[in-house]
Specification:
The chain is an alpha+beta fold. 48% of the residues lie in helices and 18% in strands. A 7-stranded mixed β-sheet has the order 7-8-9-10-11-12-13. A 6-stranded mixed beta barrel has the order 1-2-3-14-5-4. A hairpin with a 2-residue loop joins strand 7 and strand 8. It is elongated, with a radius of gyration of 31 Å.
């Protein structure tokens, strides 16, 4: 499952289904007859909501029909039956409906109509014609046709104009994160040796982050420096085993790691490499080999230290030296041989003979391979970085550009304003990459706020490369609307769509009711329960500090996400009581 599927996937479609008050003349909507009542009335499931109809045309229980809104009168919708018998969603059903609208069926229009029938998506004749025109013009020919259908469904659902610009912007959002668009523009500017300007500086600043593999090492090393239990002992282990130069002091070691944690963007812009010529892959492989041979190495080194205090010249030790060298990773074996040649193997032997060496290295290896993030206080800057990224999206990316323009208050750091200028003043591939980023920002704008029946739904995408994540973070908020038109912090739902480096696709669904918080984590990683259990108390304390209470934490498989959301929609938004007449057929 792709995380970047805001558009078209049921897991993230608008939860607040449209009511009949939102339907307008000309709209086509699918309905199913649930129950017949006396006096020519019936209960009909229309656009996901059960209503009562005044019948003027005979209908059959259990049948599905497509209705077209003719007009409204006295708060009652007058509907015309267009077609029925959609049980199998056949091609003939789609052709019949297209012909009922007075249109000529084509291969693409029939396929698109079938997708609307399957999704039970309300639409009108104009939006259908415009959608088919965009599909036939192949403006997004590189995108799978089903994904294009999903984007058009989203635009119809939100009753947005079906135009080339809006389609392109929304399509760009559905195909990846904003970090990719930013990086593509930065790369093109470097290829063309574009002078570093305020726009490029800001984009580099927001997008720079540690390489994902290196980030884990940097965070672990920083936490070790302030670990009261180990007292930064990794420095001595690395130095005694020849993993770093013997000339490096403890102060140099500390400063190197802390400067990378405290100054992430600068460190990466200048080199994008670990200090002391370390390589992530070689380091992990070496530690794995060392810890795997722990018992044999300790036995050999103990024997050597007992024979003439580790004398190099003793014949038995010479044999054991070779056996140890064969058990060590290549880089450490080389340094071990050099120490042997200099007649100075004692610190090497003592370090290799110390069980604590393997304990600390094994702990480092397991932690770095563990998909759950390190929780050292030194790594609390992740929260600060996340908030900075959110602030940038809200204030600098350009989501408020039109508002600033209307009030003649354009911020010179507004990225959208600068992108518009760049598109107008450049050409070729640079203008193309700038336009793609502009489309992405506009796609986020288009999907940022949705209002329906007193509910608010907000969407925001957060650049996450700087946070060390593989893909950007999608946030979705759903809430009753307060009197001043804002999200109600006491009754809301927040969904985090994450693509983590080890846990892979993860969705965190947080429900808030009367400030009681229920958290559901959707993920397919085995044994996640053990890791989450250790975090509950920290989560509970964090919520208490903000006057919230943790009610429960659940872990479910990703496959259950769609089912859960469907159940949530049905329970929350489907009325069950029989009331007055809602529409007339």
């Amino acid at each position: 499952m792709s995380i970047h599927r805001l558009l078209g996937d049921k897991a993230v479609q608008q939860v607040h289904l449209p009511s009949h008050q939102q339907l307008k003349s000309g709209d086509v909507v699918q309905g199913k007859v649930i129950k017949l009542f006396p006096d020519h009335k019936a209960k009909i499931n229309l656009a996901g909501k059960q209503m009562i109809a005044q019948l003027e045309t005979p209908l059959i229980i259990g049948e599905r029909y497509h209705f077209q809104v003719k007009h409204t009168q006295d708060q009652i919708l007058h509907l015309q039956v267009l077609a029925n018998n959609f049980k199998n969603n056949t091609e003939q059903s789609a052709i019949q409906l297209i012909q009922q609208l007075g249109l000529k069926p084509t291969k693409i229009s029939v396929a698109f109509m079938q997708s609307l029938i399957k999704q039970q998506m309300p639409f009108n004749q104009n939006s259908f014609i415009q959608s088919v025109h965009l599909l036939q013009s192949r403006v997004a020919k590189e995108i799978p046709i089903k994904q294009q259908f999903g984007v058009l469904h989203n635009l119809m659902e939100k009753k947005l104009p079906i135009s080339h610009a809006i389609f392109q912007s929304t399509m760009k959002l559905s195909t990846g994160g904003i970090s990719n668009s930013i990086e593509a523009l930065l790369k093109e500017s470097r290829n063309q040796n574009i002078r570093f300007n305020p726009l490029l500086y800001q984009l580099e600043q927001v997008n720079s982050g540690f390489k994902t593999e290196n980030m884990s090492i940097i965070k672990y090393m920083a936490s070790d420096l302030n670990n009261t239990q180990t007292n930064g002992n990794l420095y001595h282990i690395f130095k005694n085993l020849g993993m770093i130069s013997p000339s490096i002091t403890k102060n140099q070691w500390n400063q190197a790691w802390m400067s990378m944690v405290e100054n992430t963007p600068k460190s990466l812009v200048e080199g994008r490499a670990l200090p002391f010529s370390m390589d992530h892959s070689a380091l992990m492989k070496g530690i794995d080999q060392l810890t795997a041979n722990q018992s044999k190495i300790i036995e050999l080194t103990r024997s050597m230290l007992q024979v003439n205090d580790g004398s190099v010249t003793h014949s038995k030790n010479l044999i054991n030296f070779q056996k140890i060298a064969d058990l060590l990773p290549e880089s450490i074996s080389l340094r071990f041989s050099e120490a042997l040649m200099k007649g100075q193997p004692r610190s090497f032997l003592e370090t290799l003979n110390n069980p604590n060496t393997y304990h600390e290295l094994d702990n480092m290896l397991k932690t770095l391979q563990n998909p759950v993030l390190n929780h050292s206080p030194q790594l609390g800057k992740i929260q600060q970085l996340f908030l900075q990224q959110v602030q940038w999206m809200n204030q600098r990316a350009g989501l408020n550009y039109e508002h600033q323009l209307a009030h003649q208050q354009i911020d010179i750091n507004n990225v959208k304003a600068q992108l518009i200028q760049l598109v107008q003043s450049s050409s070729g591939s640079l203008a193309e990459k700038a336009q793609q980023l502009l489309n992405h920002i506009q796609g986020i704008q288009i999907n940022s706020i949705t209002e329906s029946n007193g509910f608010l739904q907000a969407f925001l995408q957060i650049p996450a490369q700087k946070l060390g994540l593989a893909k950007d973070i999608d946030l979705q908020f759903e809430s009753k609307k307060t009197k001043d038109g804002k999200i109600d912090p006491e009754y809301c739902r927040v969904l985090f769509y994450l693509s983590l480096n080890n846990l892979k696709d993860t969705v965190i669904d947080m429900h808030v009711q009367k400030r009681n918080v229920t958290v559901t984590i959707y993920n397919d990683f085995t044994d996640l329960e053990n890791f989450v259990g250790a975090m509950k108390e920290n989560l509970n304390q964090g919520l208490k500090q903000n006057d919230y209470r943790l009610s429960s934490v659940h872990i479910k498989a990703m496959d259950s996400l769609n089912e859960g959301d469907k159940e949530h929609r049905e329970k929350r938004y489907h009325p069950s009581s029989y009331q007055g007449v809602d529409f007339r057929v």
